[in-house]
Design a protein that fits this description.
Elements: E1 6-10, E2 16-17, E3 23-26, H1 27-39, E4 44-48, E5 60-63, E6 71-74, H2 82-87, E7 90-96, H3 104-111, E8 115-119, H4 123-133, H5 137-160, E9 163-167, H6 169-175, E10 182-185, H7 198-204, E11 214-219, H8 231-240, E12 245-250, H9 256-265, E13 272-276, H10 280-291, E14 294-297, H11 306-313, E15 318-321, H12 324-333, E16 337-339, H13 344-355, H14 358-373, H15 377-403
Parallel strand pairs: 1-4, 1-7, 4-6, 7-8, 8-9, 9-10, 11-12, 11-14, 12-13, 14-15, 15-16
Antiparallel strand pairs: 2-3, 3-5
Helix pairs in contact: 1-15, 4-5, 8-13, 11-14
Length: 404
């Protein structure tokens, strides 16, 4: 492929346009685009919508637009037409699945360009997110009906597309039979160099005794969608059962102040520590590798969170709700413990049992690390770029054969 072979990336994330003309781009998304730019053998154009609001939940970097190593065009999804793609000399479109982008596979079809969708949230997961965030039953019903209608449109769009890249098993199982080129991947930011080593796991469990406090971790946004409100239910159960433990909660969000008050009220201050937002590479990953036995995951929905793979990359196994995303991770990795949904007491019981069997935690730690080793940041992106190239070349070959 020549440098003229132009990949258009159309994400769901929006870009902040600052008053001085600079742009603020979310750090994790930027890392992914830079990986595209490095591995794709052509050029990369990013088409993003403008975000009028600031989002404090994400780390962002600020750039002058001409400093970016890729072309950035700020445009609404509805303005993307066959003519717009051809004007930008686009050769392949990679778009995040979303109600605003269901038209893109038809747009690409009209422009005779290959379209590949990225999927993350299944219909079930989207309904679970609604349930976690919507108390009004009529509003919840209306939103569920809207999502069901959206799902029908999304399935038509994905069926028409040349390929689909599924982040996690929920959407892979939902769409792999309706698209001719499906790819399953597990998203994460941990590179080969950041992986835990077997030696680090051995050191963590050296002279490990059952009477040492069990060291538990949660990291992520402190919001209901991530189940942060149930962490203290788990902590209270453990304390009531007489289990020695320490729980480290890393992150920030709407529930932070409420959780801090509950920690004091439940007299958990000596056991539960709110760590705030830790830098991913220099603080969170090293801390988890050296100081954590188990990750506690009360996600009440099946979004394909990076948390699963990134935690396993530290050689830390997960005790979590059996949402459809974590079920898929456990199915493919054979690592972790699945607990029935919305049962924090059962999570606490599993943790209590594991506190008396540290060797089983160590064995699962090694399994988790082995799975993460197969899905590092580098390997995942190489697989995704390879898939893009195969799909694009296949369409080009088909067109060439039809012309002759």
């Amino acid at each position: 492929m020549s440098k003229q072979f132009n990949l258009a990336v159309i994400p769901n994330l929006k870009v902040e346009l600052l008053p001085d003309g600079r742009v603020a781009i979310e750090q994790k998304f930027l890392e992914g685009i830079l990986k595209y730019d490095g591995l794709w053998s052509g050029s990369v154009t990013v088409l993003m919508e403008k975000n009028p609001d600031r989002d404090k939940n994400f780390h962002k970097k600020i750039f002058k637009r001409d400093e970016l190593p890729f072309k950035l065009e700020i445009i609404s999804s509805k303005e993307i037409t066959p003519q717009k793609l051809l004007e930008n000399k686009i050769s392949v479109v990679l778009a995040s699945a979303d109600y605003r982008k269901n038209h893109l596979s038809q747009v690409c079809h009209s422009a005779n360009l290959p379209c590949i969708y990225i999927t993350e949230y299944s219909l079930q997961t989207r309904k679970q997110i609604i349930a976690a965030n919507t108390n009004n039953p009529l509003l919840r019903l209306r939103r569920n009906l809207w999502e069901e209608n959206q799902e029908r449109k999304q399935r038509k769009a994905i069926a028409l597309a040349e390929g689909v890249q599924c982040n996690g098993t929920p959407t892979y199982e939902a769409y792999r039979t309706i698209n001719r080129n499906p790819l399953l991947y597990f998203d994460g930011r941990v590179t080969e160099a950041m992986l835990a080593t077997k030696e680090e796991i051995e050191k963590r469990f050296l002279n490990c005794k059952e009477d040492r406090p069990l060291r538990l971790l949660f990291s992520g946004r402190l919001i209901k969608m991530k189940g942060a409100d149930r962490l203290l239910d788990v902590a209270r159960e453990l304390k009531h059962s007489g289990i020695q433990f320490e729980m480290f909660i890393c992150g920030d969000g709407d529930l932070r102040e409420k959780m801090q008050r509950e920690i004091v009220a439940a007299r958990l201050k000596d056991r539960v520590k709110m760590m705030g937002v830790l830098d991913f590479k220099t603080e969170l990953i090293p801390f988890a590798k050296a100081n954590v036995d188990l990750f506690v995951c009360c996600h009440p929905q099946g979004d394909p969170s990076c948390t699963y793979l990134e935690t396993m990359s530290c050689g830390v196994p997960i005790v979590g709700y059996a949402n459809e995303a974590f079920e898929g991770v456990v199915k493919y990795s054979q690592a972790g413990w699945l607990i029935p949904m919305d049962r924090p007491k059962l999570i606490a019981q599993q943790l209590a049992a594991l506190s008396q069997n540290r060797h089983s935690i160590k064995a699962m730690s090694l399994k988790a690390l082995e799975f993460a080793r197969q899905h590092t940041f580098e390997k995942t992106w190489e697989a995704r770029i390879s898939h893009l190239k195969r799909v694009a070349m296949r369409k080009m070959a088909l067109e060439s054969s039809m012309l002759h």
